[in-house]
Amino acid sequence: MGDSSLLRELRGERADTPTVWFMRQAGRSLPEYRSLREGTTMLDSCVRPDMAAEITVQPVRRHQVDAGIFFSDIVVPARIAGLGVEIKPGVGPVFDHPIRTEADVDALPPLDDVYDAALAPIREAVGLTVAELGTTPLIGFAGAPFTVASYMVEGGPSRDHLRTRALMRSQPEVWARLAAWVAELSGRFLRAQVLAGASAVQLFDSWVGALSEDMYVSSVQPHSAAALAHVADLPVPRIHFGVGAAHLLSPMLGAGATAMGVDHRLRLDQALDLLPAGTPVQGNIDPAVLFTSEEVRFAEARAVLAAGSAASGHVVNLGHGVPPDADPQVLTDLVSFLHEQGTARA
Ligand code: CP3
């Protein structure tokens, strides 16, 4: 597995052909996913090891991507810890009881041996997946403290994360306790996946771009660092990703990541200028080209390869997740196009 192109790129050694996987490669864009999921809620499917394993493998089988991403969700750990949360189709995660006061934080369940034991279905699913994937590496993941806590504070999806940002400013101690709780929650979830066989991890801080650099560094970075510290003693690369977070690229790396995911708003060569020399990057084909002509799509793929050619390592991905209405054949063809290209080095 150490020889896989994914791990080589993430260690900063270039592989012979471009390495590619897609955020949200599993899921609604695949008919085999939709039929398997029928009659089972999203979060129930995540704690059924056979189902989670099969869904994880589906896009690898179909598209020949170079990595699997464990089928789960950033709110699965909260559900396993006992919080009332569901994923409303077309909406996203919704919590029964938003966390907004000190008393709400006091009432959060402890994260101890009982939680670790309850992660058994996750360990089992990862084990089944790794066996099924063979030589293709599995990426484990978790949500970062800001993004997960923002769902908990808002109670559901939010555009501006205003309540969360207000809590951070008006009750910084309450925020710090909540963020520390999520760091422990996500950190133990990451560690369980790696110990069960995941070869790399990605920490998703999807909504962190809503913060200024000052707010990030003072109120979020220490908690993201605490989450990543749960796997820092294990020999796995740690990818960190946020949307609209160009201004946070370097401090996010500073939270203890070893590679940075970049969204489609920032060219990879510009990202490299913002990062310490030698940092491997991941990204960042604009998902919009999944809905254009092949000519436009392949031109974008070539441009992304060229922009990443100066990096010590480059894992090709989309700038954000696969939209549910993407045509799976378009993704399969994009993977084979990428695999036909060499890794031109600058
Ligand atoms: O293939 C993969 O990438 C692995 C699976 C995965 C899911 N969620 C499955 C899922 C991953 C990595 C996630 C992470 C996740 N979940 C993030 C971070 C990545 C990102 O997109 O920025 C976030 C913010 C969430 C929260 C969340 N969960 C949202 C916003 C939604 C979409 C709601 C909707 O229906 O449009 C979900 C639901 C979800 N998570 C689905 C899947 C396959 C769709 C639910 C379904 O199939 O019924």
UniProtKB/TrEMBL annotation:
Pfam families: URO-D. One of its GO terms (biological process) is protoporphyrinogen IX biosynthetic process. The record marks D73 as: Transition state stabilizer. The keyword Cytoplasm applies. It is an enzyme of class 4 (lyase). Gene3D superfamilies: 3.20.20.210. HAMAP family: URO_D. The lineage of its organism: Bacteria, Bacillati, Actinomycetota, Actinomycetes, Micrococcales. It is found in: Cytoplasm. One of its GO terms (molecular function) is uroporphyrinogen decarboxylase activity. This is Uroporphyrinogen decarboxylase. GO terms for cellular component: cytosol. It comes from Brachybacterium alimentarium. It comes from the Bacteria.
